Amino acid sequence: RPGNATPAQEERLKQALDLYRRKDPGFAAIRDELAAEPVTAWAMTIWFAADVARSQRSLRTTRDEWGRLAKGAENPLTRYAVGHLQAIAPAAVPCISREMIQNVGDRSKQKLGQVLLAEIGAPALPELTRLAGDPQWQVRRSVAVCAGISDSGLDVDPLLQGLLADPEFAVRATAARAMVERVAARHPAVGGDRDVAALDAELEPVLTRLSMERDPFVRGEIVRALGRAQAGPSAGAAIRAALAVERDRKAKEEMAAALGLVAHEQASAELLIDLLERSPRQADPVTWGAIQRSLRRMSGYRRNLDPSGWRVWLAESKTVQRPR
Length: 324
Fold this sequence. Notes:
- With about 325 residues, this protein is mainly α.
- The protein is about 70% helix and about 0% strand.
């Protein structure tokens, strides 16, 4: 922390807060003046952050919803506070980092700091890069969250790629999900079609991570994200390779479900039917259900079949249906 304000600074802050609360246009000038001093910049950052938190306090929000709320114009107080925060971004970053991101004992403050640094964007990137090497894994995970919800034009891919190799499983899982979501957003479906080759090429670091990942939770998170992104054939091949040797029941379920969402291929259908034979409903109803859902998506059928029935379908089918 930069220390305590002098009596003169306290008086100036009092005047500034009055203008800020009244939304007086004259606040911008005094705001910029106070932003030049670390002590007063810190105090203003706390004001703006508190207003963003106050505007959302009555809402129970997920990480993704917080990102949307911070960007939305539907909440005037949020937009007003964030606008002023962005105006003093370089001066505000140290306060947000120290008081919120590095405050691992207060998850609500951490979540608030994640959104605010994501809103600040490029001026926060050097601090995010520094925090990616923080000894506390919760801080490094916050970096991955910030990168994931930051503006699509901000180049955070190198940051996320580095976090894919983090020693903490929760950081790797968050970084993988963030990277898949950002890559998918860069390659939206247009008229029902998307450039899956380009999508898969940018997902290569995540697919490589999947092939070498030892933690079943992280493997499950990666394939779930790939499924939601409706990734292409390279992702399908990576998931099949992982599923062929997977022993964790939950990760196996996620992989079976993801194969019904990524690019549909005959090899995926064959593997799922083989797995269905080894996963009777009574022994593993969850994995059995995931396999059946994926095969129904591939076939267009509305009912479940036993393995022999699915083999008949696959033998008679000329093409496996595209994901819908």
